[in-house]
Task: inverse folding
């Protein structure tokens, strides 16, 4: 796979406490890394993939920098504790974009995800703008052709844009078209949506596609009601693909994105929404997208993003 590269040696590093106790381990000590892309030969329950891509955000007229996210997020995860309950991670490297060819990179991500899922692993993809979701989503749909696969997007934006080419604003419109072509039902929920950040045209498209919308205001005023709405959506699914656009968080908590949210759903509430999704027994794939390290402040955003990823891994185990 020409778009593939292994993770640089030296990324998974941290503080070594094992002289204190054998179980005083951190993720850098329990992750397995591979120098070739062979998911079926790797131990581990969760395949970690990076999508090193700026092209989707660039085409969507946003602030680029998301291509650096996989490396920065791995570094931020490396020093976090690895408990016995954790699902085990295997790092299967990055998919990169060659010569601005986003479509080719999304296809490479789709194939990599499918290979991981077929090898019995769940997939955790870090990086890129939300164009990551087209490749990741296709891979998950391919892996379970006969099952009801639902997408839960934690995001201020619907990303159902109509555009002449793929961007970070189009992935769910593209997945809807894919489902149509395959005569599959498109099952999509967007949670944390800001009405102020989505045009009437996008809301009309969402209504036409029967999208479940949980507004940011609902998440803030009544997390329990937001969870009930998500549980109703999940009840009809066999598998869940969860995609976390970090601009769902408030800008003060997550400055490191292309489009920081004025209001947003704070991490503490987001965790309450994540718990039932992660514990549903249906969660098959997760990604964290739109993280832009060049806009971070003192590593704050990286820390928040890594904590969310860590929590998913913990609850997934
Ligand atoms: N990934 C999607 N991003 C948003 C960006 C919004 C903005 O730049 O304000 C979108 O396309 O709607
Ligand atoms: Mn998005
Ligand atoms: Mn967004």
Result:
């Amino acid at each position: 796979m020409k778009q593939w590269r292994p993770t640089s040696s030296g990324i998974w590093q941290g503080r070594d406490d094992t002289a204190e106790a054998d179980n005083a381990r951190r993720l850098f000590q329990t992750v397995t890394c591979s120098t070739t892309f062979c998911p079926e030969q790797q131990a581990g329950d969760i395949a970690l993939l990076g999508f090193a891509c700026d092209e989707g955000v660039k085409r969507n007229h946003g602030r680029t920098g998301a291509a650096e996210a996989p490396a920065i997020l791995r570094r931020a995860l490396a020093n976090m504790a690895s408990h016995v309950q954790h699902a085990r991670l295997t790092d299967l490297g990055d998919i990169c974009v060659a010569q601005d060819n986003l479509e080719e990179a999304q296809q490479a991500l789709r194939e990599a995800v499918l290979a991981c899922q077929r090898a019995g692993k769940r997939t955790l993809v870090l990086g890129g703008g939300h164009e990551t979701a087209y490749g990741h989503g296709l891979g998950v749909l391919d892996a379970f052709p006969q099952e009801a696969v639902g997408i839960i997007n934690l995001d201020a934006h619907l990303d159902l844009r109509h555009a002449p080419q793929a961007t970070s604003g189009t992935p769910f419109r593209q997945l809807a078209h894919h489902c149509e072509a395959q005569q599959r039902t498109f099952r999509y929920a967007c949670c944390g949506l800001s009405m102020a950040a989505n045009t009437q045209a996008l809301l009309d498209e969402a209504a036409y596609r029967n999208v479940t919308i949980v507004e940011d205001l609902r998440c803030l005023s009544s997390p329990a009601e937001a969870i009930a709405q998500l549980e109703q959506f999940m009840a009809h699914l066999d598998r869940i693909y969860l995609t976390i656009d970090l601009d769902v968080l408030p800008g003060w908590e997550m400055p490191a994105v292309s489009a920081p949210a004025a209001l947003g759903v704070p991490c503490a509430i987001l965790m309450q929404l994540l718990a039932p999704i992660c514990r549903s027994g249906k969660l098959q794939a997760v990604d964290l997208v739109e993280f832009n390290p060049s806009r971070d402040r003192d590593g704050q955003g990286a820390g928040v993003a890594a904590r969310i990823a860590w929590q998913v891994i913990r609850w997934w185990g």
